[in-house]
Backbone:
């Protein structure tokens, strides 16, 4: 089992963080990862910690050679790999909190925005 002490760390501010006008990050909503030269990934959150920390954890796992999950070591999603690659290559990464959405409409609104601009959504891991 690989060491769980990170040999590679992400610097503070490894991505830009933008909250759209009128959005309260403490209410459920939709976020978008924008990766320079690659495209966007759209997701939903109930708690803001999801987009702010879960993706960072997965990028750190890739950088340090750790598995995605013990039973699914290679199942990183395309967005995780593209975030890691962009960081390594010094390309701009931006997390935008786009809008608040009623929790009952989160799934529907996420699908709408994925159809419009979520070219990185999906399970393509390579």
Residues:
């Amino acid at each position: 089992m690989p060491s769980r002490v990170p040999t590679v760390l992400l610097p503070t501010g490894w991505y830009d963080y933008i909250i759209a006008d009128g959005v309260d990050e403490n209410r459920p909503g939709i976020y978008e990862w924008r990766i320079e030269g690659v495209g966007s990934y759209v997701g939903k959150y109930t708690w803001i910690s999801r987009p702010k920390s879960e993706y960072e954890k997965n990028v750190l796992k890739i950088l340090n050679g750790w598995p995605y999950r013990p039973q699914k070591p290679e199942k990183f999603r395309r967005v995780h790999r593209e975030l890691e690659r962009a960081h390594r290559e010094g390309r701009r990464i931006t997390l935008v909190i786009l809008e608040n959405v009623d929790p009952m409409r989160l799934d529907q609104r996420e699908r709408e925005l994925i159809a419009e601009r979520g070219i990185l959504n999906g399970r393509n891991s390579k």
Observations:
- The mean pLDDT is 93.
- The chain is about 30% helix and 20% strand.
- Strands lie at 16-19, 29-35, 39-45, 93-100.
